[in-house]
Amino acid sequence: MTTDFIYITLADDDEDDRLFFTDAFSELKINTKVNTFNDGVELMDYLNNSESVLPNILFLDLNMPRKNGVECLLEIKQNERFNDIAIAIYSTSSSEEHIEETFVNGANIYIKKPNDFNTLKKILAEVVTLNWQYHTSGLNKDNFLLRM
Amino acid sequence: MFKYLQLYKSTIFLKVIFVLSIAIIFFIGGITFKHITVLKNSSIWLNKSYEVNTELERLISYIKDAETGQRGYLLSKDDSYLQPYYVSKDLVKVSFDKVSRLTKNSRTQQSNLKKLLYYINKKQNYLSKSLYLIKQNKTDEIELNKNLIEGKIAMDSIRYKIEDMMIAEKNLLNGRQKAYEDTMSYTPIFIYLTLLITLFLITSAFLKMNNDLSVLKKANNVLMVSNEANNLAEIVGNFGSWQLNIENNTYIFSDNEYRLLGHLPQEFEASLESFLKFVHPEDLEFVIEKTKNMSVDNNLPPFTYRIIRKDGQIRYFRGLGRIVENASGNKTFIGTTSDVTEEIYDKKLIEDRNRELETTNKELTAFNYIASHDLQEPLRKIETFISRLVDKDFNNISETGQQYITRIQSSASRMRVLIDDLLQFSRTNKAEKVFEKTDLNSLLENARQELGQLIEDKNAVIENTDLPMLDIIPFQIQQLFVNLIGNSLKYSKENVTPLIKIKSSLIVAKDEELLPKTKDKFYKISVEDNGIGFEQEYANKIFILFNRLHNKNQFDGTGIGLAICKKIVENHKGYIFAEGHPNEGSVFTIYLPTT
């Protein structure tokens, strides 16, 4: 029996955050395959490899060494091969500049890292089960930032 | 300027008068000369006429003498009577020649003379013929008588002719006398008139000069005063001036120009070279380059350079100049030199301070970033790990341990509130303030939604009148509503339904007790609650950052919320006031300018 997996990728330099992220998905009863990268360079190397399986949803931390989230976002949006990837910004900051910048550059949703594990689980469940087609077509600055 | 132009015109006027006067004097001289000549001529003519008359009379008397002599001889036959007859021939000739000479310019007299000569010859012929007849003793009485009678007729003709000539001479003299008198009669009047005109011209020239002189004197006085004022201004303003006469390439330096260089006024000769000696060697080339083309370009754009004063001090000078042309077309290059040393030092100081401020600002921004990211991150992890601990292992921890964990949790959440509030406060400070015409009703609605949970929890009632459209920074005004309503909800009385009334009205500043007395119009928006209120003496204190009226165990809070409100209102050039009545409630009043 073949199961349809949702491929999830996270690029975050923070080890704790990666741990919370994978823990949250393992506790959620959703068929997901999660892989993580320590920074933007590792992520782009993986994506640019034609043999790689492209994720359905990509979670991007903004503040990363070597190559930050915005740089990754710009590169991904320039490559047609990555058109189907839904991009969720996953950041500690909720500053207007960051929200504005990533929205303009084509990210699909903005998630502020929560300070509670249960909230994190709720958010991730919400994002994974989101109807992306519907969300993207009606996307505006008000619903870009995910509020829980 | 107009006055000086007039003076310039008057010099032309004076030149014209001078030339006219000279011409008139020459004219008078000419006329006088001519008249003296006429006078002299007329006296010559008069003399001549007398001479002619005398000579004519003499002529006739000679002829008479000859005749008388002959008659004597005829009667006495004495030869001695013939003496005058012989002499008279020569004398008549001499006399005739003289008359002829004197009247050679008169045609009438000449023709008269010709006839006279004819008659004289005739008479002399008759005389000599009668004498011959007598000497021959041919006493032919008839012939002799005939001869004598014809001689008498000839004599009469001579007499008439001479009378004619004398009359002609007299007429001539009369004519000349008349012409002379005519000339002489109008000459004095003419000379007198021209003299009068000259006198008038000279007088008016004198008056004009006198007038010009007084104008000049006045102008000179004004100039002297303004010169002195200029000198004072130069001393006070710390600048000097110089002039370059383009024609002869000479310089004049003002007194203060010397003082700026550390010298006494006019201590050395003004010239470009003597000035360049003071210029700092490093700036010399630059200054020479700048001044090289000034008299060609007619302009010296402002430039700054250094000089070394007599006492060795280095000063910064700024120079500039331009060409000035006066009414008579003389060109002078005028320039000023100001000592801008203090200015430059001050500017450097300000620049340094600005740089310091910029650095401080950058540090502050960096600090904000640290607060928003780096501080939040560990805090978030602490909270997340605690939440995991509570979820998974809470029951395995001892009771005191559980208490500690609860304390840790509340401390962490308090820290989060502090960080969030601080961030918000710094965000209201931000430089970019975009004003937009916004409906305040919709901002209030947004604020209500933001506080939805709290309003529901407290069961609060919020009433409001219609709010205006204003040119404001939308997110800040929304924050203002959130903070004020949040404040009212936080300090509500237990067991009493919180009632918050928001009212708005248009007012004029001078009608409000707390506003400056101007005619500016404001929107007054008040937020009134029925909460615990506060003592009026704290009305100003509550807006100060980190100032709290209550113990944090009683009411949680950071003391930032109302400070943010004040900041926001100040950003909008408005005013905020608080009024408190303990146990009755409080009123926060905001005034926002209409424009």
What does this protein structure show overall?
The complex is a heterodimer of chains A (148) and B (595). Chain A has 7 helices and 5 strands; from the N terminus they run E-H-E-H-E-H-E-H-E-H-H-H. Chain A has helices at residues 15-27, 40-48, 69-78, 96-104, 117-129, 132-137, 141-144; strands at 6-11, 32-37, 57-60, 86-91, 109-112. Chain A has a 5-stranded parallel β-sheet with strand order 2-1-3-4-5, sandwiched between helices. In chain A, helix 1 crosses helix 5. Chain B is rod-shaped and about 220 Å long. Chain B is 63% helix and 15% strand. The mean pLDDT of chain B is 85. Chain B has 4 domains: 2-206; 238-339, Beta-Lactamase (2-Layer Sandwich), CATH 3.30.450; 347-374; 434-593, 2-Layer Sandwich (Heat Shock Protein 90). The two termini of chain B are 48 Å apart. Chain B is built from 15 helices and 12 strands. Chain B has a 5-stranded antiparallel β-sheet, sandwiched between helices. A 5-stranded mixed β-sheet of chain B has the order 7-9-10-12-11, covered by helices on one side. In chain B, strands 6-8 form a two-stranded antiparallel sheet. Chain B has helices spanning 2-76, 82-102, 107-135, 141-237, 255-260, 272-276, 281-292, 294-297, 341-374, 376-393, 399-428, 440-450, 452-458, 474-490, 561-571, and strands at 239-245, 250-253, 299-308, 314-325, 331-339, 436-439, 461-464, 469-472, 499-508, 521-529, 575-581, 585-593. In chain B, helix 2 packs antiparallel against helix 3. Chain A: Keywords: Phosphoprotein. Chain A: The modification 4-aspartylphosphate is found at residue 61. Chain A: InterPro entries: CheY-like_superfamily, Sig_transdc_resp-reg_receiver, TCS_response_regulator.
